[in-house]
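Quick one, probably user error.
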């Protein structure tokens, strides 16, 4: 069994994120939503965890990320933060928590940071959310930005297809990336856009660009942990690489447990008091 041994065991901070880009060290990021899983993955050397609003899908079974609330995001983030010793922990600001106005946005961001002890928040959108971005940054809260396919806007897009394929949308994305970097965001997620455009963005700004379906020429990668561990067998986008088949492993293990219980083979004499 291979294991990635981290040479630098210092706590990963937003400053170190930018330092990693300058050094050319790629950033490995995964989602996390609970204490036990985050503990295991942190020990494996993950640089950052996103407590993503994808918990709406992975943990709650919703069709989209839209239903998840600030209260629910805080609940998931608390467990992850308690588990993590090294990785940076970023918490998604859910749909509706920053789109109303800047006052509401900074209020929700402060609450997330105070109640979770996370390291940063993440927000989807470009120029249209800049007032909220600036207010949150002015409050001393680091922001990871997110452009390209932004799942909170699924009803606007109507599809989870690749974004910024046409010249106009690509130009806006590049302009938004520069605006967000200039505003003071410490990192940027690019989701499901052409690899050539992602590379251009990464070269045009000083902050790290983390890709998901954005090619290899960016500063790091992020995946949903349940997808890359093979727990979600029915989800197979082009950008996903499965590093395990936990769906089969868990199904077989649980099936064996059920069989042993039915056959009175569990517990045996050595497994009782």
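Nope, works fine. Designed sequence:
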């Amino acid at each position: 069994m291979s294991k990635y041994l981290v040479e630098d065991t210092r706590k990963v901070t937003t400053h170190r994120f930018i330092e990693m880009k300058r050094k050319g060290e790629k950033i490995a990021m995964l989602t996390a939503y609970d204490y036990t899983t985050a503990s295991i993955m942190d020990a494996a050397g993950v640089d950052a965890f996103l407590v993503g609003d994808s918990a709406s899908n992975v943990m709650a079974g919703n069709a989209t990320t839209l239903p998840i609330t600030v209260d629910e995001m805080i609940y998931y983030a608390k467990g992850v933060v308690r588990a993590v010793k090294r990785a940076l922990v970023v918490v998604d600001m859910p749909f509706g928590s920053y789109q109303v106005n800047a006052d509401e946005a900074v209020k929700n961001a402060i609450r997330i940071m105070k109640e979770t002890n996370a390291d940063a928040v993440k927000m989807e959108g470009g120029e249209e959310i800049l007032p909220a971005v600036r207010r949150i940054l002015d409050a001393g809260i680091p922001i990871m930005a997110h452009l390209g396919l932004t799942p909170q806007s699924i009803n606007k897009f109507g599809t989870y297809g690749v974004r910024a394929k046409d010249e106009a949308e690509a130009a806006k994305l590049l302009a938004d990336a520069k605006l967000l970097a200039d505003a003071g965001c410490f990192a940027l997620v690019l989701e499901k856009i052409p690899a050539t455009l992602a590379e251009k963005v990464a070269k045009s700004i000083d902050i790290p660009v983390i890709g998901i379906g954005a090619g290899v020429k960016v500063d790091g990668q992020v995946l949903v942990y349940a997808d890359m561990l093979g727990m979600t067998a029915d989800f197979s986008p082009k950008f996903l690489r499965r590093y395990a088949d936990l769906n089969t492993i868990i199904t077989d293990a649980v099936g064996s447990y059920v069989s042993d219980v039915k056959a009175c083979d569990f517990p045996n004499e050595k497994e009782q008091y």
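The chain is about 40% helix and 15% strand.
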